[in-house]
Please model this.
Amino acid sequence: MAVRVQREDFDAGAEIAALTAATPRIGAVVSFIGLVRDLHVREGYHRDAVQAMTLEHWPGVTEKALADIEAEAHRRWTLDASLIIHRYGRLEPGDRIVLVLTASPHRDAAFDACRFLIDWLKTKAPFWKMEETPTGDKWVEAHADDDVAARKWENG
Amino acid sequence: MAVRVQREDFDAGAEIAALTAATPRIGAVVSFIGLVRDLHVREGYHRDAVQAMTLEHWPGVTEKALADIEAEAHRRWTLDASLIIHRYGRLEPGDRIVLVLTASPHRDAAFDACRFLIDWLKTKAPFWKMEETPTGDKWVEAHADDDVAARKWENG
Amino acid sequence: MKVKYFAWLRQKTGVAEEDVAPPDDVRTVQNLVDWLAQRSPKHAAAFGEAKVFGAAVDQQVVQLDAPIAGAREIAFFPPFTGG
Amino acid sequence: MKVKYFAWLRQKTGVAEEDVAPPDDVRTVQNLVDWLAQRSPKHAAAFGEAKVFGAAVDQQVVQLDAPIAGAREIAFFPPFTGG
Model:
């Protein structure tokens, strides 16, 4: 179990290898990587080209929120290991934003926990995105989809 | 879309980076990695230590089966890219067996397609595992769980 | 009492953090919002936005009717959009 | 007609692949299994196992009652256990 909030990029392959090293009972590793897209779809149809994005967060509180979410995943599923890395600062299209790794003896737990972590992270960790677009800077608004995704785990 | 059946190990980080390079509309990448476990649980309670495993396959037919499964995933979900790498030959605990990568604009499609691919692959691609255990070599039998997992996608 | 602003609330108020000493009749987060909105035109503009924002008292997310008695730090922020 | 064996079927028969010329009354995959089982004690042991196995005619997975007329290749294998 580990959480890192950092400006730097990450190497998913190295993180996966480190997570599984010396734990031979792990049978399944699931990873989610979120990337900066070059297009932001607002309201389902209005599209903005995104030239760059700046991620702001709440130092100290962010790490605690992520650790709480991770602990909740370990409470709900039998996991051998997990890792959350979330970047902040200015990022460009194609740049990696977030890595969520889960490892378990069998794949169901790893898949469910990984999806839970990214769903909850989006609505429960203090990050804010500002996008640079041809028509000016725009703060990203919360997605109703993300609220729905997060809510489906409420009764776990 | 690509399928590789190989004796060699793979670098998940490099494969993810290659998959997402030059496709800035990708917002989500999900990966599944299956590893050789040091313990095989049979019938839910009988446990064998696994010293090594040899994966046999059906050259030519395996690649076609994997490509068919991958095409089915692209038919069911909006994916920007995908990759399946499956190893054969002798592998030891902790070694990587299989990599499934899916990339999509939004995470739901990538998660669902990745899970579908590994579920179907387990029951529809001609691979066979023989485990070396302290009590001799044992061919792994099909898991009822895997059949159930595969069957839940039948009506997609 | 320290007040923190994040994202567009920080941009619009023009401050990331400020020390304030509201009068005794400012008892809830909503009271504080109303009181802060009178501090400057920028504060008024920030809180006057029809946009949704959240608040935390001593780093715990709360509703706007939560009491602020004894709080050391109140934070205001838009809905989270990480991941 | 070529016959292929995989995994424990290959181990028990002792062959990965063999050419056979079954008589005309061997019309289905099951007929072929019964006929092959008489080829040697090893074949008998392989097919006599109470274990489940599958078959493919010209690389298409089929049921045991499938016809084999005109087939170039019949394969026998245990349930798949990849991934």
In short: Helices of chain D lie at 8-13, 29-36, 41-48. The longest helix of chain D spans residues 29-36. The CA atoms of residues 28 and 36 of chain D lie 12 Å apart.
